[in-house]
Amino acid sequence: MVRAMLKSFFSMDRAEALALAFLVSFSAFAFLPAWRSREIAGMAVFGWLMAALMVLSPALALFVFGRRGQLRKR
C-alpha cells in the first residue's frame, strides 16, 4: 500500500530534496522562541532570520530549478 502511495507523488531530484530540507530546517531554527528576545542592531534576531528566509527561499529555488533546466537542455 505504501508503494502505491509513493508512486502518486512527483519525483524529486536530489538537489531539490536538499533545498527543501535546508529551507524546512532553517525555518524550524528561525521559529525557535530563543530568537524573539535577542536583538541585533535594534531589531529582534527573529526579524533578521525571517528577512533572510524571505530572500534566501526564492533565490535558492531559482538556483535549483534554473540549474535543473540547464541540465535538461544538454
Q: Give the terminus-to-terminus CA distance.
A: 37 Å
Please give the largest β-sheet. 2 strands, antiparallel
Total number of domains = 1
Beta-strand content estimate: 5-15%
Structure description:
By secondary structure, the protein is mainly α. Helices cover 70% and strands 5% of the residues. It has 3 helices and 2 strands, in the order ααββα. A two-stranded antiparallel ribbon has the order 1-2. Helix 2 packs antiparallel against helix 3.
Entry keywords:
single chain; 74 residues; mainly alpha; two-stranded antiparallel sheet; 2 strands; 70% helix
Write the layout of secondary structure elements.
Layout: H1 2-7, H2 14-30, E1 39-40, E2 43-44, H3 45-73
Antiparallel strand pairs: 1-2
